[in-house]
Amino acid sequence: MSSRKAKIIRAFGKVLFILYVGFLIYFLFLAEWYGRTEISEEYRYNLELFKEIRRFITYREQLGMFVVAANLLGNILIFVPYGFFVSMAGRRRGFFKTFFFSMFLSLAVETVQLITRVGSFDVDDILLNTVGGVLGYIVFVLCNGVRRKHNDRIRKKR
C-alpha cells in the first residue's frame, strides 16, 4: 500500500472515530428516545452484577423483546466500534489493552451518568460495554488478518 493511500485511510479512520464519539455522547447523555433529557431527582444505581440482566430476561414477556434486545444487545453493540478503533489507532494492540480501555471508558460513562443523574450507574452496563469493546477488538483482528493476507498476495504477484 502506498504511503499516500495509507494516510488517506488513517484520516478516514480518524473522521469515523470522531463521528462515533459524537454519536456516543449524544446517545448516552442527550438522546430523547431513552429519556436522557430528564434529570432524576435522586441517584439511580445498580451495584449487583447481573441484577438488571436477569430482570430484563425474567420480564422479557412484559417488556417486549425489542426493549430487552435494545438494552442488552445495544449495550454490547454500542462499544464494538470503540474496541475496533482503539485497536486500529494504537501501535501496541492487544486483547487486554482493549479490555481495560473499554472497561474504563464504560466506567467513566456510568460515573458521569450517576453524577449528572442522566441515566443510571449500572455495573451490568459496564460488563456489557466491555464485552462490546472486546468484540470490536476481535473484529479488528479478523479484518487486519484479511488485509495482511490480501497485501501478501499482491506482493507475491509483483
TrEMBL record:
Limits of the VanZ-like domain: 17-143
Pfam families: VanZ
Lipoprotein recorded as keyword: no
Keyword annotations: Membrane, Transmembrane, Transmembrane helix
Transmembrane annotation, as ranges: 12-31, 63-86, 98-120, 126-146
Entry annotated with the keyword Heme: no
Annotated protein name in UniProt: VanZ family protein
Organism: Candidatus Mediterraneibacter quadrami
